[in-house]
Amino acid sequence: MEVSVPKLSAGLLPYRVSGDGILEVFVVHPGGPFWARKDLHAWSVAKGEYEEQDDPALEAEREFAEEVGVPAPPGTRLDLGQIKQPGGKLVRAWAVEAPDFEVDEVVSNCFETEWPPKSGRRQSFPEVDRAEWMSAAVAREKLTKGQVPFIDRLIEVLREAGTEVRETAKPPPN
Q: What is the C-alpha to C-alpha distance for residues 119 and 117, in angstroms, rounded to an integer?
């Protein structure tokens, strides 16, 4: 009986905390025709697959640069652990504080696929078509459901370190 080995993926989740304590994260939207019109539960931590013998922390750095087009922001990496996505893939992520990190244009590596399906025609698409800073509250709605726990873990780690964070702006007083 053949044992199925889950796919492994590693990535980085840059974050910043605004002056009023709102936690923002930097996430990416996958490119290609399947994701073109999807927004809710379509975004992701910048990540990529690696082999079991590889160093996941180094692979996270490499994948970030490949998907976003710039080196990952410098700083201390906070290990957010590993989660199992609904499809079975194991994703490990690190957060990095990046208050001054900005990307004017995403320049992602590309993948090739048959498009339209069964057409026999191969087309090339960027792995990532855009990246954005968004509040933790918005990220909860836009991230694939299997990656939302990384937001919870980041909030927990920051609060344990004494950083008070909120997911969204305070509602206006009545």
A: 5
